[in-house]
Amino acid sequence: MNEVLLAVDNLSKRYKLPRENLLAAAPEVQALAGVSFTLRAGKSLGVVGESGSGKSTLARLVMALEKPSTGRVVLDGLDLHALPPEALRQARSKLQMVFQDPYGSLDPRRSVGQTVAEPLAVLHGASRAEQRERAVEALDAVGLRAADLAKYPHEFSGGQRQRIAIARALITRPKLIVADEPVSALDVSVQAQVLNLMQDLQDRFGVTYLFISHDLAVVDLVCDEVIVLWQGRIVEQGPPERLFTAPEHPYTRRLLAAVPGIAGMAGMPQNVPSPLPRSP
Amino acid sequence: MPRRAPAPGLFCARSFWASRGVGYRCHVSAPQPELLTVTDLRVTLQTARGPADALRGISFALQRGDTVGLIGESGCGKSITALALMGLLPDGAQVSGSIRLAGQELTTLDETALCRLRGNRIGMVFQEPMTALNPLHTVGRQIAEPLRLHKGLSGTAARAEALRLLQRVQLPQAEQRLDAYPHQLSGGQRQRVVIAIALACGPDLLVADEPTTALDVTIQREVLDLIAELVAEDGMGLLLISHDLGVMAQTVQRLLVMYGGTVVESGPTAAVFERLAHPYTRGLFAARPRLGLKRGTRLATIPGRVPELADMPRGCPFAERCGLVIDACRAADPPPVPVGLAHEARCLRVDA
Which residues of chain B have pLDDT under 70? Predict the structure, then answer.
């Protein structure tokens, strides 16, 4: 059994809303309420739920971009939110993030080389030569070429941009990658390429994923364990093969029922052999 | 919220076909004239890299009450088709071929005539309701606008009609919501408002471009149900544009699969999904992550990428990425080959 990499313990977050009345206390919204789970190294945990369920708040707290109201996030033995600033900065190379929109998450004025090497420059103060060497390595891992280093994001398609974002996340050799809807903005065939790539990287480097998605089918494919968030709470938790075949919570059932499926149509082949050659 | 039963015949492709027994309804044999006929529509856009053929000869027809889906990936031309229908193509676009709405040719109309048509006889629903709505105007005022503009209703009459429309799209507390601003509504509620605006003048044709892509799955289902229900009630034609195979399977009767500015396969939805005649349709279907796949299963991918419009190869646009390609594919654009009743595919290798 792999060791526990990430332990989230009774995590809560309240946000203050703008005051409605000068004399009354500012109203608060409970974005996350008492969330606990553990994630073993080399495994993937899926987080599903709708807008406002607390998925992204959870991501921001795990990434230590915000302080929780209560609770702890322990990554590889380090209590992230209790670390002094410099130690937290050092710890950040262990966790990286991939965002939803590959058009918005890459700076259009920076070359791919600059973008991919930036975490190294910031976190490790690596030399130019080392940055370049590692950037080539990272690009190679995601199926891009060294010649792409000098190019700019607009020269790439959506799927390639998401590969660049993944290369940027990989360059610090992180233990945990938080992926917030990493394939939601991509076309179906490109989505498949990126999902395959993410699984390959896990096999090769043993990366652990916290995989946030509203797409149950994607989570089912990629994750070993799934938590269902609803109004900031975990309403159900379990391996996808159980959760998606025998859901216990009404909310999970409702989510599942809403998935538009072709499977419901009469005479539908469930698995069509592809005539296409496998991509390299 | 309890789920409404789907409107018989229209919402669910399965019950639609079942209720008609065997065989598919065929456009040719229908008695009524067609609502929308698109014939050999070609659009050339001016880009920085020179002229690009965005649509390379699209033909399809749609009757009242028909629901047709355009499916394909970014850059296949599905949104350009919608823009061409509404006369909203970017400046410098060259259009040839014909678009006839109830017998009237649209490609030759001037801007004034098109303005009379849009929002009146053609209703539009776009992907992102937040950008489709004006943040500075109340919901009621925005729904009333087409009514005052096209129907010449007075302020009070338009407001009363706006309220009726909001109730029709099942927005809770419609009366109070008339004076709400878009930011006070949730994404699903905003999309209901956009649908109310599209329906305001009782259009003949509703064009919905990715209407649920920005919404949560449960809301997506409600909005699709609502659209299907309204289309059935009013007997409009629906042109639905989406990249989501599941959404299509549940919502439309006929499907046009687009790639590289052409329709590579078209037919009744159930037949298209059953036969998957074109290699691209097959590739799309196989690439789709779906519930119940074993963890770690590698999805089939389509190698390569969509060709640039500006340098589209000769012959079949899919040839470079197709596993069944032969020399003849690259020589000339393959003609449509019938593969079933009202079902054709532009592929030389349908029997391979």
Answer: 1-32
